[in-house]
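Researcher: Next sequence.
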Amino acid sequence: MSMIKVEDLTFSYPASYDRIFDSVSFQIDTNWKLGFVGRNGRGKTTFLQLLMGNYPYQGTIVSSVPFDYFPYPVADQTQWTQDVLQSVCPQAQSWELLRELSCLDVDSEVLFRPFATLSKGEQTKVLLAALFLKEGHFLLIDEPTNHLDTQARDLVSAYLRRKQGFILVSHDRHFLDGCVDHILSLNRANITVQNGTFSTWLENFNRQQTFEQAQKERLQKDIARLRKAARQTSVWSDRIEEKKYGAGPVDRGYIGHKAQKMMKRAKTIEARQQQAIQAKSGLLQNWEPLESLKLSPLPCWGDRPLAVFSQVKVQYCGRDVCGPVSFALHPGERVVLDGKNGSGKSSLLKFVAGEALEHTGTITMGSGLVISYVPQDTSHLQGTLSDFAKKSQIEEALFKAILRKLDFERTQFEKEIQDFSGGQKKKVLIAKSLCEQAHLYVWDEPLNFVDLYSRMQIEQLTREFSPTMLLVEHDQAFREAVATKTVQIEGAENEKRNWDSENT
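Model: Next structure:
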């Protein structure tokens, strides 16, 4: 057993006045299964990069173990997967690698295929298997679930539960609960470490915020009372002082004593007031309010379905990638498409959003249907938020107000979107959709990289406004909170895999 010690860590990016970390200190055990949580843009990935030694910083980071980072970069993806994994972990025996792949339900045949032909989920699994075979290394795992379907997330979570010695950045509550025994929380004012699952940490965190909020309200009342008493005492003191110099026979010794006593009392009240203000300033430094979001969906026409799928198969180059799919989408429903990676879920959403794709079967869409679409990909985002709002023809003030509620700092408004974190880019697309009035909201994995607090805000939104939605999302907790119906998509994986291999 050894420790990773962080002392007085201070870091900011060049040309930035904002400190990401300011005199942060904590320590963690290298045997822990550590979940790392926090709002988007707070510095989770940055901290992992600091551990890797990729940025200069002030303070000290002491560790007796080497670090490895996931996602692991594969420069030449045309190599066979077996050769890629051999380069990642050259000391691993073939039987060890096969054992790890078996635990992750990955067929050994992937070893003899070009790495590029593997699905994103398969690539995640095989690289994790190789990295965990590097004995004595501490693994930094940065959001591995973004390319994993629901079944794969459960498999990877169970796999990690059998391991030790890692930091896992994830916003998937169910996933974290399944595999971690400590939580590293990146808060507004500090970093804290707590023993237990994510659910345990969240319960304690909410309890602490409730307590601090009550304390703050009590101290605010105390401060108001003390200020009133201070004003009254000051007035009394001034009046007594005036009597010392008034006309007529007076006992100036008595009056002077009384005035002095009043002044002393005023100073005591002022000191107590300052103590109360100081105590209040130490509260709610890590406050994470879940501000309510709003949505204005267009009213639908009666109970008629907005879309009807009948034996639909999406195709690429004449080959089926999914289906057949049959279901109806009615007003007020929130339908989640479920299925393995590569089963054609995103293709179906693109088709509904208006993209022309090869298909068989029929899709009947309601006349005059207005659709708001959140794509999975964010690579097209560029320019400032003002530029994006103008290009998207949405109200800029409303757009930025929604982003503020999603924990955007005002300083972000002047930055280029391409410099945002992955979670912040997804929030830009979500905020755009929330600005749009539509009959149907089509969202393709909207929560990739998005922090857990924003996920809960979106859950509250859907429960309050009940928009009609068609979405793909693998966060189980979110699905349980918002979905009214789940449609299973069966993919044509073998045919697609053969086509990928032929065209690689």
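Model: The chain has 15 helices and 18 strands. The longest helix spans residues 198-243.
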